[in-house]
Design brief:
Layout lengths: L2 H13 L6 E2 L3 E2 H16 L6 H4 L14
Antiparallel strand pairs: 1-2
């Protein structure tokens, strides 16, 4: 009966094999490739025109003279 807990522990450790290579930060190879694909999609996306880019910049207000 004592062999059963040891055997189950050995099975659990075998299930946690390091077959998937992890990158720094704990990201698996599959997760890293999914993140790379998402980043590539975002980079290819066309950005909308910004309304403030079409409007000329306003000049700063003139300083108020001091009363002293």
């Amino acid at each position: 009966m004592r062999a059963l807990p040891v055997f189950s522990l050995a099975l659990m450790l075998a299930a946690c094999s390091a077959s998937e290579e992890e990158k720094p930060g704990g990201v698996t190879q599959d997760e890293a490739s999914a993140l790379d694909a998402a980043a590539e999609m975002l980079d290819k996306r066309e950005l909308p025109e910004l309304p403030e880019a079409a409007t000329p910049a306003q000049s700063a207000p003139a300083p108020v003279p001091s009363a002293s």
